[in-house]
Amino acid sequence: MPRARDGYTQPATGGCLIWIDASPGASKTEATGVNQWRKALQIKIAAQPKEGEANEELVRFISEALCIPRKGIEIVSGHRSSSKVVMVPMTEERVLRIFGE
């Protein structure tokens, strides 16, 4: 899978890929900014990384933040890692408008 060159997003067929640096075990789920070195959106997750709980919470958060159904969100890679790539069915411009650059 190609890596985003300039930021944490990349257009893809049917939507946009988002590179995420997830931190499970937080007290609140929230996007905390962009890690420019890793080129990833940093998201704290209020769930533990066991039995898929953190991934489920991440999908719930992205669904609510982007106002899209959960079924349209796919974790493409990083199911067992803090570094994830997520596919969403919307334009890169809209993702950047919502989460910031």
Task: Describe the protein.
With 101 residues, the chain is α+β, with helices and mostly antiparallel strands. It has one domain: YggU-like (Conserved Hypothetical Protein Mth637, Chain: A), CATH 3.30.1200. Helix content is 22%, strand content 36%. The protein has two helices and six strands; from the N terminus they run ββββαββα. Strands 1, 2, 3, 4, 5 and 6 form a six-stranded mixed β-sheet that branches. Strand 5 and strand 6 form a beta hairpin. The protein is globular and about 30 Å long. It starts with 8 loop residues before the first strand and ends with a helix. The mean pLDDT is 92.
Question: How do the helices and strands line up, and which of them pair or pack?
Answer:
Layout: E1 9-12, E2 15-24, E3 30-35, E4 40-45, H1 53-66, E5 74-77, E6 83-88, H2 92-99
Parallel strand pairs: 2-4
Antiparallel strand pairs: 1-2, 2-6, 3-4, 5-6
